[in-house]
Amino acid sequence: MEHPPSARVIALDNLRVVAMLLGLVIHGVLPYTASGLVGFPVRDTSRHILADAAFLGIHDFRMQLFFLLAGFAGTALAARRGVGEFVRNRVMRIGLPMAVAVLLIGPLMHLLFAWHAADRGQTWNPDHAGGWVGPNFHLWFLYYLLLVCLPLVGVLACRRFIPEGVVTAFDTTVRRVAVSWWKLPLLSLLTVPILWDMKAWLVDTPTTWIPSLAVYLYYLGFFLTGAVLYRHRDLLPTIGKRWPIQLGVANVAILPLMLWMTITGNWWQRELPSPAPTWLLAWKAVAITLDTLYTWLCVAGLIGLFQRYFATQPAWSKYLSGASYWCYLAGFPIQAALQVWFSRVGLPGVTEFFLVNALTFLVLLVLYELCVRRTWIGWVLNGKRVGVERLPAPRPAGTGFPQPKVRPQPAVVPTAGERAKPRVDNQQAPRPVRRTPEIRLDPARPQPKTRGTGA
User: Fold this and answer.
1) Which residues does 100 contact at the CB level (< 8 Å), separation at least 6?
2) Domain ranges in the chain?
3) What is the pLDDT of residues 225-276, one digit of tens each?
4) Angle at CA 6, nearest 5°, toward 2 and 12?
5) CB 3.0-4.6 Å disulfide test: which of 142, 154, 284, 297 passes with 98?
6) Is this prediction's pTM over 0.90?
7) Exposed/middle/buried for 293, CB within 10 Å: 0-12, 13-18, 19+?
8) How far apart are CA 386 and CA 325, in angstroms?
9) Do 12 and 316 form a contact (C-beta atoms < 8 A)?
């Protein structure tokens, strides 16, 4: 069923912008990580474990949140315009940008990293990052975003053949789970088996055209959760109803313990011989459970937070909404180039981080305003020309449109003095003539000189 835009949908759109722009933050801290869990070709001399905490803390909810919001928005689009329009929209807004980015951004990143490696006396092998042409670096999410749409298209195309009893039982179960207090622990436990075979006890970053089944199932779960959430969107306020508790428990209690267990567990896994001892497997199970619980608590808490405080969309928010997709696609090469240049300067890591991100964001916004916003690139990325408002066409007379009602004016009753005056029809009272006072000059005084024509 169609529905008009509401404050909750605007809040989710604002949350999508934040999730997209947080990609610049996690890409910005990569050169300064010190744990060894995150591999990145650019390594700065200034490194700190807090960079790992920032990366892992954002990495564990950002892309998951984005896939959930993509499932919500994609199902809304299919409900409004049909499955065919949904497929066309995904091909234009995801498939076409991915093809262009794979051919341009991917090779550019490889050349940049090869030059940086040669400057340090090393060699760069493109095969380690998926080859010259592939969904590598940050472009993998476009590839998997297309793949997770396939099951949704199949369900929507065959929805008429699904028995009514199955649909009713499914909806009843979803609504019962959605209002329960144990929904987030349940989702966390269902996610643990998918993460068990990941290399670093975290969700892997794919780099090849051959899909990873575990990564695909992981993000498919968040995408379909968003699709189901749209079907029961009246329950959306209950998802993040206790957002202060959810975000507080996730970031104060779970995140530090999860980071400590994940980082130390990976160090022990490298040193201990295979097969891993039983105590390390138990350690891994607890770390992964904390990781998945942190993810779902952050996703639900941020949805509730944005519904509470960010349910409006001012002009600057609309501008960033149109620019966020472009910033994520084109931001990583600019960041990497600045990181390579600043690695020679030797500034403190915090200073370099803020300078790189500020300059990257400034360059991206300037390029968006001059080269993207009102061009065909902006039309492909955003589906319309962002910032161009179309006024509604005037209603033609006599076409059945309701005309505005005219209120009858009350009758004016003349007073006794007005009735005594003679009535003048179709005439207006003469305006009083304004006379200029006459100025008399004293002949004994010299007369002031006036500018004339020289006559």
Assistant:
1) none
2) 7-382
3) 999 999 999 998 888 889 999 999 999 999 999 999 999 999 998 888 878 8
4) 105
5) 142
6) no
7) buried
8) 12
9) no
